[in-house]
Amino acid sequence: MTHRHTWTALAVGLLLCGSALAQKTSIQAIEEYRAMLADGNPADLFEAKGEDLWKQKRGPKNASLEQCDLGKGPGVVKGAFVELPRYFADVGTVQDLESRIVTCMANLQGFNAAEISKTPFGKGEMANVTALATWVAAESKGLRFNLPQNHALEKTFYEAGKRMFFQRGGTHDFSCASCHGEEGKRIRLQDLPNLTKNPGDGVGFAAWPAYRVSNGQMWSMQLRLNDCFRQQRFPYPEFGSDAMTALSTYLGVNAKGAASAVPTVKR
Questions:
Q1: pLDDT tens for residues 128-156?
Q2: Which helix (H) or strand (E) holds 210?
Q3: Does residue 112 sit in the same domain as residue 24?
Q4: Catalytic-role residue among 17, 68, 179, 228
Q5: How far apart are CA 48 and CA 160, in angstroms?
Q6: What are the angstrom distances between the C-alpha of 80 and each of 74, 85, 86, 101, 189?
Q7: Which residue has the higher pLDDT, 32 or 232?
């Protein structure tokens, strides 16, 4: 090998090494940034609001949500989040946390579920639903996901969610799997977890609701999925739709064994 070739090979090697080092440093810097924000996470304010709303007598029936059944019996909150979505006999279908909260608000407090579902995220009673979901989820922090798959509809929702996850479409011919279907993918400095399996503690499904620093908003899981559809150039799904619940069921079942870190901080 000539000296010229030797120096060329060395230069290429240094560039590759420098690139790998820069990538590692960027990822580490983001993790350090998140760790600093976690101390005094603004999500704590939403969590406190949610707890107050849960216990407060509100709505046409002037009642609290303290008898709401989230799947583990009336009033039982701890451990409910890590087993949702699940089948509920009283409504005859599978519901996620937010949809179930709206059902309780309608049945126990007399709110109009249809009106809440039409309300934009962050507005009116929908903002309260997000706060309630944040508190309920936080009560299961550190517990491991174990969504039930015993009922036939739970299995059906999982399979439907799986098909949605891999379905390509829209102007960009994207699917959820385009970003989250394999290891080692990134968008700019953002790591993209593989959501076809347990991505790890506090990652993916186990990280939402979360506070988004970039826009100063608390994002629920449904809003996070809505934003994914936006990036795929699909129309927003309706709040509480079977499609949203099915996709959440697929992600939640795949997250089995992961510890919830909710509420987290995101960029």
A1: 999 999 999 999 999 999 999 999 999 99
A2: strand 210-212
A3: no
A4: 228
A5: 35
A6: 11, 9, 10, 12, 34
A7: 232
Quick one: 86 and 208 in the same domain? Answer: yes
Verify that 48 and 33 share a domain, yes or no. no
Asked whether residue 1 is domain-assigned, the answer is: no
19 with 71, same domain: the answer is no
d(CA 165, CA 237): 14
- Can 176 be counted among the known catalytic residues? no
User: What is the DSSP-derived secondary structure letter of residue 145?
Assistant: P
Cβ(239)–Cβ(105) below 8 Å: no
Q: Tens digit of pLDDT for each residue in 167-194?
A: 887 777 888 888 887 777 766 667 788 9
Copy the structure tokens of residue 20: 């790998």
Same domain, 26 and 137: no
Long-range pairs of 243-246 with CB within 8 A, sequence gap ≥ 24? 243/160, 243/164, 244/96, 245/85, 245/93, 245/94, 245/95, 245/96, 245/99, 245/157, 246/94, 246/157, 246/158, 246/160, 246/161, 246/164
Q: Is the Cα torsion angle 104, 80, 263, 49 positive or negative in sign?
A: positive
Domain extent at residue 48: 40-266
Q: Please check whether residues 19 and 115 belong to one and the same domain.
A: no
